[in-house]
Amino acid sequence: MKKLVHEFVKFSLKSSRRLPLLWQIRNLVHWAPLSKPEDGYTIVIAAMHELWPVAAANLRLIAQCDKTDLREVLVVIDQTIDRISEAFSKVIREVESQGLKVRLLGYSPVQVRVARRIHWGWVYSWLSWCTGISEAKTRWVLLHDLDAMPIDPGVFHKQFRAAREAQCQFQGIRYYSGNGVFPEMRLATTFEMVLDAEWLRKEARPIECFNQIRLVGGRYVDFDTLLNVQQRAPLRSAEPIAESSLVHPTQLICQYTDLLAGRQQRIESANRLPVLYYFMHLGDPQFDLTDLGDQLADIHLANVNFFDCSVNMSRVEPSSWAWMEKQIRRLEQALYTSTRPHVQHFLRGMIARAGSRRTVGHEPIEAGGVAER
User: Fold this and answer.
1) In 230-253, which positions are buried (b, 16+ CB within 10 angstroms) versus exposed (e)?
2) Which stretches within the chain are classed as H helix?
3) Any residues with CB less than 8 A from the CB of 2 and at least 6 apart, and which?
4) 205/307 same-domain check
5) Which residues is 75 bridged to in the sheet?
6) What pTM was estimated for this model as a whole?
7) Mind listing the pLDDT tens digit for each residue in 318-343?
8) Domain that includes residue 118, residue range
9) What is the CATH number of the domain that holds 131?
10) In this predicted model, what pLDDT tens digit does every residue of 6-65 receive, in sequence order?
11) Residue 69 is assigned to a structural domain of this protein
12) 82 and 216, same domain (yes or no)
């Protein structure tokens, strides 16, 4: 009985805090039922305009992937369309010349104002994904994370084909676990999810796809984006993909948003922002890695400067430093055969901070390991 009371009190308190946010965003985006959907699938990317180099790197990698059945890539920017940089527009023209169809979508002035006022990563991702879903012309839509860099050329087409063959309303790569949600509930995580936009736009409103707080069997549950609405779907599934298919430091964009909003304490122990610096450089070589690399190389330096914000890096575990080095090298080797000298210089602090937990060169390649080169 005490546990039930505790869960109800928790639910009531959390719900009262969430309601004002839901009220602010309830009418930000709308969609209509999808009539006469086109064949194939659409990729939707939620992008931040100041992180355009990350989107540029991602689009260049997508352009090298198998584009069979891919109708278009919708890049939703968290600003009005007139704020798109010429450098990013040039990248779009570049990938379009390689056969990749890209459509840019921007926020309305009202959407910009409300999203900036709240300044929470989950609002941005929800708003951008729902905007993309509302504009999709195909039944099948793949939600591709901005910070997930594809290495396997067939990764997207495999996901699409699996969803189409199974006729699932939601096809993910793993089931969500956390915040009261258990894998046994069979609710797929959003990243690299293929969803049935025809079903979703008929059965739910965009606001219902946002994070929802519920009591389930007397338990407090905070459903992440799209999880609550998944419960209505007749068919949902999750099929894992190989670690080597993508380089994906999860919640990296949310960490960036928290950083700018002054919420550094949320990211200190799980900080993976050094990978964001590398992604920025990958999309725009003018984005220099030298200063951050020098700071990280001083292993006694606790506070490190990221995007003009000081962050305490002393709580980052050695295993996390090892993981970051491994993922950066994985992408370097996929693109350039071996790690370029200046990136190797950037990695030296990560190597030192990983210490004995370093995994590069120590794990079998067939098991997802990365060679030291």
Assistant:
1) beebeebbbeeeebbbbbbbebbb
2) 2-25, 52-63, 86-96, 109-118, 121-135, 155-166, 197-203, 227-230, 252-260, 273-283, 290-297, 318-336, 341-354
3) none
4) no
5) 45, 104
6) 0.94
7) 999 999 999 999 999 999 999 999 99
8) 38-244
9) 3.90.550.10
10) 777 777 888 888 888 999 999 999 999 999 999 999 999 999 999 999 999 999 999 999
11) yes
12) yes
Residues 283 and 363 in one domain: yes
Q: Quick one: CA torsion of 103, 107, 108, 113, rounded to 10 degrees?
A: -170
Tracing tokens 């991602």 back to the chain, one arrives at 58
Residue 21 placed within a domain: no
Which amino acid does the sequence have at 76? V
Report CA-CA distances (Å) from 53 to 22, 48, 156, 266, 325.
Answer: 31, 10, 21, 25, 20
In a domain, 2, yes or no: no
Instruction: Verify that 214 and 347 share a domain, yes or no.
Output: no
End-to-end CA distance of the chain: give it in Å, rounded. 59
| 208 and 70 within one domain | yes
Q: Which residues lie below 8 Å from residue 160, measured CB to CB, with a gap of 6+?
A: 40, 41, 69, 70, 140, 142, 194
Instruction: Mark which of 187, 216, 244 sits at the end of a domain.
Output: 244
Tell the residue number behind the tokens 């195909």, with chain if given: 138
CA 192 from centroid of its chain's CA atoms: 8
Q: Bridge-partner residues for 220, per DSSP?
A: 215
The string of pLDDT tens digits covering residues 142-187 is 999 999 999 999 999 999 999 999 999 999 999 999 988 999 999 9
